[in-house]
Design a protein that fits this description.
Helix content: over 70%
Distance between the termini: 72 Å
Structural class: mainly alpha
Oligomer: single chain
Strand content: under 5%
Radius of gyration: 26 Å
């Protein structure tokens, strides 16, 4: 019962601000990039924070809403192709409807096509990094979606606007837009424990964490995890022989979303230097990812590297080195998309264990790959690591000279 109260209170607190704030005509200008290193640890995999969720699983129902919306608008629309019978029936239908009705249908269809085109243009603009253009297309799309009272399109567009605002670092705008999307989803009858609602709640908790609103962030993370654990417990109670393929897919999706929640909370705990709690969350997230996606999945390797970084900060250098070495070895065998980040983390751990020559070697390899990938943030952190190596070398040399003089 207490868990239920927590879940209800979080949603009511979350949405009350949106209801009192009115409509969301929010600009998406401002900073062009958000990729924050919350823990301040050498070259952590936070350098790929914008890409992390994609490594877990697409759980958002608002994503499927977007696909369904586009499919529904295209289904049964203009009859493209077909035989002479269709032409005959079209002539009969023409005689049954007034010209005014046909004009209304044509206008509605035209607006639907325009809306789909705007959303596609926005998606393409984001892909090419043209975020201001994407924002313009999305603002046009949301106006048209409201005009046509298309709730699926409204939810999908608000969620895309929120994601865009977030990656631009406009946290206040992202918060309002996520709340707007959630409000339409809930008012449309979607249950509050739906994975799409929980994923948006997780994004809000992450925003609160970045805004240093600790109470709201912790409440949000707790709401997400308790909701998912209750769902998973319910799914466990279904006998194996009665499990359908759809139920199994939902179980896996829900468990992976729980992994993403643990991953997000671990990063928050690391930023607060709550290293013991961060390590526990990373370990649980790693276990889920290994079981559901496999030992060599990109997200599994990122989590290994993140956990190794936390162990290193706790002073468990040997354990950290074993784990990050495993992540690097597996990444080499499968070709990890962010191998430079894993190599940079390993170089940092080697630096802390005093293996300076090995550290430089891995930093140089990471630097080359980061430059090829165009990851400037990783490049900057690798240079910082190399400076630290140089400083350690000078300190070591000075100490050796002092010891020599004493002899």
């Amino acid at each position: 019962m207490a868990a239920v109260c927590v879940r209800r209170s979080f949603l009511s607190q979350t949405l009350s601000g949106f209801r009192s704030a009115g409509s969301c005509g929010i600009s998406a200008g401002g900073r062009s990039h958000l990729c924050r290193l919350q823990s301040g640890i050498s070259v952590t995999s936070e350098a790929v924070v914008g890409k992390r969720s994609a490594c877990w699983v697409k759980v958002s129902e608002h994503e499927s809403i977007g696909r369904n919306f586009q499919n529904t608008q295209r289904g049964g629309g203009r009859g493209r192709g077909g035989g002479g019978g269709r032409v005959l029936w079209a002539a009969v239908a023409f005689s049954l409807f007034s010209r005014t009705d046909e004009d209304h249908r044509d206008e509605a269809e035209r607006k639907q096509d325009e809306l789909i085109l705007l959303l596609k243009r926005a998606k393409l603009s984001v892909y090419y990094g043209e975020l201001q253009a994407a924002s313009g297309f999305l603002h046009q799309a949301i106006a048209l979606a409201h005009q046509t009272h298309n709730n699926q399109a409204i939810i999908y567009t608000y969620s895309q606007m929120a994601n865009l605002a977030y990656i631009q670092g406009q946290l206040d705008s992202a918060e309002k837009l996520f709340k707007a999307a959630m409000s339409f989803m809930l008012s449309g009858g979607m249950p509050q424990d739906n994975n799409a609602i929980i994923e948006m709640s997780l994004k809000l908790a992450t925003i609160y964490a970045e805004q240093n609103k600790a109470e709201l962030a912790e409440h949000g993370f707790r709401f997400c995890m308790e909701s998912l654990e209750v769902k998973l417990q319910r799914q466990k109670e279904i006998p194996a022989e009665e499990q359908t393929e759809e139920q199994e897919n939902l179980r896996k999706e829900t468990r992976l979303l729980l992994g993403l929640c643990l991953d997000s909370r671990a990063r928050y705990q690391a930023s607060m230097l709550h290293l013991k709690q961060a390590a526990q969350d990373y370990q649980k997230a790693l276990n889920i990812c290994q079981q559901e996606q496999g030992e060599t999945h990109p997200q599994t390797l990122v989590l290994m590297s993140d956990l190794a970084t936390i162990l290193d900060l706790q002073g468990c250098h040997d354990d950290a080195l074993v784990l990050v070495q495993q992540a690097v070895d597996l990444s080499r065998s499968v070709g990890h998309p962010h191998q430079h980040v894993l190599l940079g983390n390993m170089a940092g751990i080697l630096l802390h264990t005093g293996c300076l020559e090995d550290s430089v070697r891995f930093y140089q390899e990471a630097l080359s790959l980061a430059q090829q990938a165009g990851d400037q943030e990783a490049v900057d952190h690798i240079y910082e690591g190399l400076k630290e190596v140089k400083k350690k070398r000078e300190e070591k040399k000075k100490k050796e000279e002092e010891e020599e003089e004493e002899r």
